[in-house]
Amino acid sequence: MACRPEIFLQWDFDHGETHRNIVRRVVDEINRVYSQISDLSNDEISVDTVYKPIEIGLYRHLVALRNIHFLHILSSSHMNTPSSSDFPSDKILHSVLYSSLNRRDVFQVLLKFNEKYCSSKPSLRRWISKLLRLGNRFGNKSFDDQSAEFNRLEFIIEDMQRTLHLNRRLRHPLIALSRNETNGICSTFLQRFEQNDYAYLVLLDPDTFNHVISTAHNPETRKKVFLTYYRETDDMIFVNKLLKAEQDYAKRLGYENSAEMLFSSNYLKESSMTRLYTHFSSRLGNALKQKKKDWLAQKRRQCGRFGYQFDEELNLWDIDYCQRTSEPVSYDELSLKLSEYFPLKHVLSQLLSMYDNFLGLKTLIACDFPTWNHNVLTFSVCNATPESELLGFICFDLLSRREKRDCPPYCYVIQPGFTSLLHKRREKLTVAAVVASFDLSTSTATRSDMVLLSHKDTANLCRKIGSAYQAVCNRPPYTFYNTIVMEKDILGVMDKFWDNFGWEPEILRFISCHHESDKPIPDDLLANLCKVRYDKDIFKIAVSVYNGIIDLKLRQEADDLESSKQTFYKHIFGLEYSKYLDFTTENFSLISLPFSRLYYCDLLCQIIGDDLFQSLFKNSRSCPEIGLEFRKKILEPFGSVNPKEMFTSFLGRKPNHKAFLQLRNL
């Protein structure tokens, strides 16, 4: 029988002492557990005396960390919540965990437990091996010279990655734009920059660059800004040193190059990713041909309209502008226009009902659940069966308030579900929070108590509520801190899957309701919305594919790097290659971050997410049980089983890119 969830935190934003007490309580408990373990004789070592105390101690450690982090994220900067610099609670909790494992007496007990039980209990092997690895890492095993060299290289690589990332954040270029050059750029946007009688001094951070390049009417302004932003910098020297260090590290581990090492822990291997990129480059090249004709015609019209010289060419710096101005209505305008159809209360009610129907669940209001604010709504999530097994809770904190940080919707698992490794039963329930800052004061509704959501906010809310249901349904057959065994490049699959719910016309009709007339969204607005989404996707995918191809060539130390740049540039974009247009330089700092494999995962996750969604959504019309099957085969084991087997089990085949290409008319 599942227990009522323990909340190890008093929801008090104003008193830092509350957080200190939580940390002290958890620290004392962990120290007590490890002290008891260190005193055990060989005959006293058992599952009850070693495994169970550590398991629940680590769980309390995790929940305390998550609760404190949640309040830090939720709180606005002016509140009296202790900051990480004033009171580094996460560092304190981690240090006590690792210092305990660093105790030789505790480490020896764990070794004896491993010898005594893990050969006969396979379920305990991964649990104890992780603790032993942590113990080794923190000093209980002398490393040989080879390991010391690995550590040295790891330190060098991490240090260079941090430096590159910091350089990109701190060294945004400054550019002077005359009054004539700013034609089309929003005047309120320009007001935040220094100006004189002749020009604006504009700092080109990513947001500013994207705004200017998509709104400036003057083609010369777009060119000037583009070439300044994607300038050659001394970062390239640093990047080459970093790539060399990564190659050295990979070869010491027995890999041929860093590409082979990078993809060794990925779902899609190096050769498969190369084939995928090559296939997509051909599709995208053909799709962009017609788009380029339309964009070039739009550039001609805009130049004639505003009196600028037309150069008969479509350049990379023109694409965002031509794409935006050729749309019947921009996405931002359309998103706000649709807000009349998305009153928050109705949208939330319909989304909960929809997810219940899809997943075979029953979501009910939980009146007696302790929360951090009286405006927080909490719902219990149960199986829609006669037994009504309680699975977890979802808290909704959606309205803005003074003490709350302004943020888009996000989902945070305050307390992860805990399934005992030995008993295979749910001992602690999941508590997830969906948080946003929807403002009553800025709502365009006629009623003062009604919040209207833009489509952008509605789509985000769909995704985050889906993520909350995923967290509640997830029931991995391992302990909480050892569940993620999936390849790193597909951990984002479910985010892409849930994202589709906020764009599917049938779902939008179901959750929409005009705040005055109660009518659903008109079909013509839905058609425009879908067109805007996928039209904007094509060029972004093209950029991602090109950068991925070149990054692979770099990591493979390919001899044909320069010729590949020219070939694929021409093949995908239909433009002659020039080093001044090679915007992969900008992305090297992203590619070389610690999560560099995630650079490749976005496209793959979108492909699998679209495939899962289309299979679930289309089949659910004729087979209502498909949602329950999806929950049991995907959501419950997600993160703890072989993903190929998991996807194949649900789809009845391997995932493919047909749905992805079909949705984008590729």
Structure report:
By secondary structure, the chain is an alpha+beta fold. The chain folds into four domains: 126 residues, Glutathione S-transferase Yfyf (Class Pi), Chain A, domain 2; 46 residues, no CATH class; 205 residues, Neurolysin, domain 3, CATH 1.10.1370; 139 residues, Collagenase (Catalytic Domain), CATH 3.40.390.10. The chain is 57% helix and 8% strand. The strands form three sheets. Strands 4-5-6-10-7 form a five-stranded mixed β-sheet. A three-stranded antiparallel β-sheet has the order 1-3-2, covered by helices on one side. Strands 8-9 form a two-stranded antiparallel sheet. The radius of gyration is 27 Å and the shape is globular.
Question: What is the strand and helix layout of this fold?
Answer:
Layout: H1 16-38, H2 47-74, H3 89-101, H4 104-118, H5 125-140, H6 145-170, E1 174-178, H7 187-190, E2 194-195, E3 199-203, H8 206-215, H9 219-229, H10 235-252, H11 258-263, H12 270-306, H13 316-326, H14 331-337, H15 344-359, E4 361-365, E5 377-383, E6 390-399, E7 410-415, E8 418-419, E9 426-428, E10 430-438, H16 455-473, H17 493-499, H18 505-511, H19 523-555, H20 561-573, H21 584-591, H22 598-622, H23 626-635, H24 643-651, H25 658-663
Parallel strand pairs: 6-10
Antiparallel strand pairs: 1-3, 2-3, 4-5, 5-6, 7-10, 8-9
Helix pairs in contact: 1-2, 1-3, 1-4, 2-3, 4-5, 6-10, 8-9, 8-13, 12-13, 12-19, 12-20, 15-16, 16-17, 17-22, 19-20, 19-21, 23-24
